[in-house]
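re: that complex we talked abt at group meeting.

here r the seqs, copy pasted straight from the sheet so there may be weird spacing, ignore it
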Amino acid sequence: GAGVSQSPSNKVTEKGKDVELRCDPISGHTALYWYRQSLGQGLEFLIYFQGNSAPDKSGLPSDRFSAERTGGSVSTLTIQRTQQEDSAVYLCASSSQGFDTQYFGPGTRLTVL
Amino acid sequence: GNSVTQMEGPVTLSEEAFLTINCTYTATGYPSLFWYVQYPGEGLQLLLKATKADDKGSNKGFEATYRKETTSFHLEKGSVQVSDSAVYFCALRGNQGGKLIFGQGTELSVKP
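got the structure back, here u go
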């Protein structure tokens, strides 16, 4: 079956612009996660959704970062007023329940110039 | 807080050599432990997992045993292949929520 998909695969933006990253989880998966992979910080958790609610937002680095999930499916991660330190690969994962195996998407590579 | 520490890479081995990648963790309670692998140009894939002490996870010839007494989850393979060249991540999931906490990753390069 189809895995986790993310779009775009690559995004280049200018400092100060807003960007939206999209994640389509595996059909039927109720839990959805966002992570960030960067050279300096490794793999970091950002936010976790169970259905449409986010019981754990502890990894969002600043109030410029927000995420939502609608219909218990697609999620969007929004970064406002991007900074160069936001450059990273943003990974999305989903699982059938909150404590089940997480399956990762291919990631969106964000470059902020 | 919870954390994971992996041996630093890169690790370079010849084909058919024995592989060990060390992983230790700090956690409260009884976490679940994972190894994920990232092949060149591909996404993260689950390699194996263990959910309680003394469990052994295994897949594709790789093994790791959950050792609570030494807080370790070392990855081993008896005979590596060129196709095993990848970055390997150790991770834990605590009891409070589903988020994964990753080690810094270990790059493995296997030469023919």
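couple things i noticed - The interface with chain A takes residues 32, 36, 42-46, 49, 89, 91, 93, 97-105 of chain B (CB under 8 Å). The radius of gyration of chain B is 13 Å.
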